[in-house]
Amino acid sequence: MIQINLLPVRAERRKEFIRKQISIAVLTLFCAAAVMVLLFFRLQGQYNKTTTSLASTNKKIKQLEPVLKKIELYKKQKAEISKKINVIIDLDRYRLAPVVVLADLNRQRPEKLWLTSIKESNRHLTISGVSIDNETIVMFLNNLKHSTPLKNADLTLLRSQKIQDLDLKMFTIDCQLDLEPLPEMLKGLETSPDISSVEEQNG
Q1: What is the Cα–Cα distance from 102 to 117, expressed in whole angstroms?
Q2: What is the pLDDT of residues 170-199, one digit of tens each?
Q3: CATH number given to 90-202
């Protein structure tokens, strides 16, 4: 019988298997290292690009700082101008308020009732006058409910007083002055007959 020793063949196969495993491991490590290197350079490129872009943006911001300061100054000046314009508008309204109020009071005033005093303070109006009777004063109060610049009319004083043997009624009315509708009320006011009537009454 012939006996064949297979131990050297098995050993050689084992060595070949180990060499293949080592080659695969080395190749895997090499590929992993190559991928990591590629990722590193790619990330490095993105980082450099981002850094360059950020530096460029900061440079542009610094270049725009004078323009931004001018814009802020313009906004501030615009706000100040708007504030001054509003003040002028309010002053103009107050300047024209007496004309409008007198014309409106003359429209609401009944016959046999006369106004003796009109005082204004902080958009609060105090109207004093004299009438022949209480009914005429009540009529005047009711008429004031339809007034545009005068609101919340309230009778605060009513007393009798003899003047030249006439038993007259002295009264005081408080009301609020609303200046918002003045621009609309001023339209056509110059041609209104109430103006001449007011001048005749005050004269």
Answers
A1: 11
A2: 999 999 988 776 666 666 554 454 444 444
A3: 3.30.1360.100
